[in-house]
Amino acid sequence: MKKTLIHLYACSFFMISFCGLWGQNSNPEYSIQNAFLQDKKEATSTQLKAVLLPLETVFELKDTPFNRYWLSYALYHQALLADVQNQKKIAEVSIDRSIALLMPLENDAESLALLSIQQGYSTQFKGYLSMMQIGRQALQNATRAVELNPNSLRTHLALSINDFYTPKVFGGGALAPIHLKKALEVVHNDPTDRFPSWGKDQVYELLVKHFRKQDQDSLAQDYLERGLIEFPTSELLQELN
Dihedrals φ, ψ of 91, to 5°? Predict the structure, then answer.
């Protein structure tokens, strides 16, 4: 009986923690991003672990697409953080877990978009044959995501990322500018709703890089200035300035 009460208390504590986290912005997106940036700045992993713990607990209590998505998003950031801190094994384990969480959500456009991006990132930890197979899966998932929801910034971003980093000899480079421009046409989600809103600064980043590759510096600078007006604190854009 005592153990049961302790377990219920612990669950209640984490549920309250998660609800507090969720209640601030209707979803955990900003808490994950802020924890990632803080840990990156301070060379720790404390903040992100504190966000991950209630997400893990809530997912164990109730397996829903919503809970799967945000736990996966947090684990993806854990992988990025570990990579920056040269903890490659932790990065690989985290990204593999984040991918596994999204694999069953094959009819959800937002999940497929995030999955595609995660798969592309994961290839750096794999051998050549696995890398090629995962790369094909990432392209298929990004393409499927756009088909399911052509009005999502992140579905177009996922397809753009895949195309941008595909060598020209393998047909890369043609789709990226088309889908990046389509991504900018999408009405950005209200940050108070339950849907993801991340990715727009990455759209600007890739547009700048694309047009610099094409020696269209004026156009690249225009997108950079537009991006910095909208996202003045974005590290991605500041590094390009």
Answer: -60, -45
Write the pLDDT tens digit of every residue in 136-188. 999 999 999 999 999 999 999 999 999 999 888 777 888 999 999 999 999 76
Task: Give the residue carrying structure tokens 């700048």.
Answer: 208
CA torsion sign for 177, 182, 187, 191 is negative
Contact call for residues 175 and 160 (beta carbons, < 8 A): yes
72-100 confidence digits (pLDDT tens): 999 999 999 999 999 999 999 999 999 99
**Dihedral angle over CA of 217, 220, 221, 224, nearest 10:** -160
pLDDT, residue 27, reads: 80
Compute the 3-state secondary structure of the chain and give helix, strand, coil in percent, each to the nearest 5: 75, 0, 25
Are 50 and 35 within 8 A, CB to CB?
yes
Residue 62 neighbours by CB distance under 10 Å: 8
SS (H, E, C) 6-48: HHHHHHHHHHHHHHHHHHHHCCCHHHHHHHHHHHHHHCCCHHH
How many Cβ atoms are within 10 Å of 228's Cβ, its own excluded? 17
> What is the pTM assigned to this prediction?
0.87
> Mean of the pLDDT values across residues 61-80?
97
Question: Which segments within 99-231 are labelled E, that is strand?
Answer: none
| Long-range pairs for 85-88: beta carbons < 8 A, 24 or more residues apart | 85/43, 85/45, 88/125
